From TrEMBL:
It comes from the Archaea. This is DUF456 domain-containing protein. Keywords: Membrane, Transmembrane, Transmembrane helix. The chain crosses the membrane at residues 47-64, 84-113, 133-159. InterPro entries: DUF456. It comes from Halonotius aquaticus. It holds the Pfam family DUF456.
């Protein structure tokens, strides 16, 4: 018989993967919850190395989730203010346009704010594209991390 805690843990890990491509869904936190739900209540111990490694990967996912877009904006030359406003606008537009709202909000906000701060059209466009690439790259990194966490968890629990 399949253990209920195992089903819940795998469900949370799958939610983490799905959340990695959906804005405003805490993919790393879902993965972390799945790991620790099984570690605390599962019938088989995971072992300290497995718990530590999976936990670090999940925390890494949380960090990537929160800093990907703003770091890309900053690296492109945008100000901290621009990066912060773009993040807020993208989040708000998520509820208006769905996942597309984040991309449109971030690109549009960086572009417009860069123009108002004196950048020419080419520079504003370049900075907004770099920022969008950072947001999309962050989602891809989260997907790879949460997928690896899920795969490693299943291998550890089922195989070992």
């Amino acid at each position: 018989m399949v253990e209920v805690v195992l089903v819940v843990a795998v469900g949370l890990l799958v939610a983490g993967m799905v959340g990695s491509v959906l804005p405003a869904v805490p993919s790393g936190l879902f993965s972390l919850a799945g790991i620790w739900a099984y570690a605390l209540f599962g019938s088989e111990p995971l072992g300290p190395l497995a718990i530590g490694g999976l936990t670090l990967a999940a925390i890494g996912t949380v960090v990537v989730d929160h800093v990907g877009g703003p770091v890309a904006a900053k690296l492109s030359g945008s100000s901290n203010r621009t990066a912060l406003i773009a993040a807020v606008v993208g989040f708000v537009l998520l509820f208006v346009l769905g996942p597309l709202g984040i991309i449109v909000g971030v690109i549009g906000t960086v572009f417009l704010l860069e123009l108002t701060e004196g950048a020419d059209m080419e520079m504003a466009a370049r900075r907004s594209i770099y920022t969008a690439a950072g947001v999309l790259g962050s989602a891809l990194a989260q997907l790879l991390l949460t997928g690896t966490i899920l795969l490693a968890f299943v291998v550890i629990v089922v195989v070992f």
